[in-house]
Amino acid sequence: MSENVGTPERARLIGGSLIVIDFSQNGNSARFRGKGWSGQEPTMVWGLGPSSTLRVPMETAGKPVVLEAEIDPCRHPPALSGQIVRVLVNGTELGAARLSARSMIRCEIDPDLIVDNAPLDIEFQFPGFVRPKALRHSGDGRAISGAFSFVRVYTKGLFEMGAWCGPMHHSFPVLTLTPPMPPISAETAERAIYNFGVKSPVVPYLREGWDRGEQGFTWTTASVCDLELPAPTIPGQYVLRLDGTPLFDPDRLPTQELTVLLDRIVIGQFLLDGKTSLVIPLPRELTEGRETLPLSLHLPDATRPVDIGLSSDSRLLGLAVRRIEIASAPRHMTGILATRGEQAGRPIAIAVSSQFVTEDETQLPAAVEAGLGVDPANLMRGFESLGDNCEFGIAQRRLGLEVLNLLRFGNAQLPDLMLALADDMNAANEPGKIVVELNDGHPREFVLGLPQYNLHWHTFEYEGNTDEKTVLRAHTVKLAYLRRKFFEGLRGGRKTYVIKRTRSIPVSQAMAVMMELARHGRATLLCVEPAPPGRKSGEVDLLMPGLMRGYVTGFAPETDVENADPTDWLRVVANATLLNRGPNAAFHTPDAAE
User: Total structural domains in the chain?
Assistant: First the structure.
């Protein structure tokens, strides 16, 4: 709703409280600003990232309070139409508005939300914040949302005639907030998967900027590519998952910028440098009450391969899309809505555990057992590797644990793992899809493989001691058993799954893994990476419920994984266990049969 306000009449002050926050260069906004603000500019201050906060001290005497804010949203018509703003006071959402031009928003704060003699904590949330540089709209690399010129907070009835004044100019609309989305009473179960490729069922939904499709994927062939998918029919919180591979070359085109928009509002911005799976939360303001989801992929780095010497292909290629999924966000994955925050900067942990990082390797096992009440081998039993290589499995062995896990001695890169999880690893139940080959080691080892997913396993069986048929027969039976055991463990919901990578896994990609695991049960994911400067080996961050990030000094060389040092792994597992416990949770040691 909106009303154009003309030249304001003078209003006679009756009584009450009034706070005016001026965001101009000579204003007073620095006194009130909390997190999520840019530096001062001549006439305003930009909000940064997904949230900008104010703390406003005022006396209300139990009366309702009016909040007004004049905001110019970051926009670039026609591609980027503006922003969604949600307003929260003392942690309670008052409502939301869509800003497509400089506007003043106005809302009333219920006295029940106000605590006597305590300041008002006001939060402006912007799920559509944007880095203009990624869209090539400007050179501004900040994650900006809206430019604030002033905020007013005053006691209702303070003036004889309504608001004491309107917006700065009569042409700026005054917007009232739409009520908050009602809570979701039950978990929705909608899930729509669109696989791309030749003669794909997704073709009727593609608009401008797409090729005809190839085997298993479809190239984008423009810098802006549009598609319009059916909207979910059941109200709820949904996410979009996108699987694809950008056109890239380590030397000539190392990265591609991708911005995803829904109804001309940014919902995600990414820097792609290889095959990926991304999870993007969909604002409920843009999904509910509509029949379609008008999506746009902006790829300003799209390139003709012939122009950079990659091939003779003269198409303007950006991203080879394999799959898009619109799915309900699992209710227990509350942190999934915060994944956009990482695109404004490195995520801030909600808790950190730094225990056991100073003990040397001889004292560490005893310190862990004394601190947690469980010996290192049994502690390790509650953690299961999701591949990369077998370093974590070797660390478990060197700490005294031998356990049968699906990917303990497997090699699974993250995109290949996602492909296997999306298919529920069904190829492991089909003997015709399992192969055995000799590697180049000395002696040469028989390696088990599932080419459909590009997954490989050590067999620890070597040339000269056995033959290919015997190995294939035995490990085919074993692989089917391990697959069944893996999904039984997921349904039990008791384990922490470990992903080890040589560089940081973005939260949006980690969430894609978590959503695949969540289809079978509640799972906790621990992503382990080399410790960056300023972090201690063995520390673990809790990024959001169910997702942790651990740090180690370094990983074992690929040529010497069997001699992996378990010390840092034990520190990480112990600290992850502490975070898993929470302040009141009891530690659970899985049964040996698990």
Answer: 3
Q: Are 244 and 320 in contact (CB under 8 A)?
A: yes
Using the 3D structure, point to which of 333, 367, 389 is the last residue of a domain: 333
301 to 136, 267, 477: CA distances (angstroms): 10, 19, 47
The single-letter code of the amino acid at 218 is: T
Residues 569, 571, 576, 577: is their CA dihedral positive or negative? positive
| 522: number of Cβ within 10 Å | 17
- pTM for this model (two decimals): 0.89
Query: For residue range 63-115, what is the model confidence (pLDDT) as tens digits?
Result: 889 999 999 999 999 999 999 999 999 999 999 999 999 999 999 999 888 88
Give the strand order in the sheet containing 51-56. 51-56, 120-125, 83-89, 92-99
Rounded Cα gap, residues 517 and 511, in angstroms: 10
591 inside domain: no
Alpha carbons 327 and 191: distance in angstroms, whole number:
4
Give the integer Cα–Cα distance in Å for 475 and 325: 34
183 lies in some domain? no
Instruction: Give the residue with greater pLDDT, 341 vs 251.
Output: 251
Query: Is residue 459 exposed (0-12), middle (13-18) or buried (19+ Cβ within 10 Å)?
Result: middle
DSSP letter for each residue of 28-80: SGGGTB-SSEEEE-SS-EEEETTEEEEEE----TT--EEEEEEEEE--BTTTB
Pairwise CA distance, residues 3 & 60, whole Å: 27
C-alpha span between 415 and 421 (Å, rounded): 10
> Tokens for 344?
């404004």
Confidence of residue 3 (pLDDT cuts 50, 70, 90): very low
Query: Which structural domain range is residue 146 located in?
Result: 2-176
The pLDDT tens digits for 447-494 are 999 999 999 999 999 998 999 999 999 999 999 999 999 999 999 988
